[in-house]
Predict the structure.
Amino acid sequence: MATLAAGLTAPLSSAANERSWHEGCRGYWYSTVGHGYCQNATGWPSYGYFTDYDCNVEADAQHHDYLSRGYVGKYDTYECVFKINKTKVHQ
């Protein structure tokens, strides 16, 4: 029973992320899902961020979000049907 419980709490996949932060934010992705994350949004003057989702088979997606100065946390999420290759944040 303990083995079953440990298996249920273990993560199914680990996250990959952009190597560098862009204006305080960067992209993260798992097997099929990607999202943006900020540790301190500094995209002055507009604080507008584009998040690109590079899907393996279907068409890629791009979302645009406005974040307040100093925003910390996860924002925007997109799920590819089959596989996501990467998620990139830029202005």
Q: What stands out?
A: The chain has a mean pLDDT of 89. Strands lie at 16-17, 25-29, 33-38, 48-55, 61-66, 73-79, 84-90. Helices lie at 2-9.
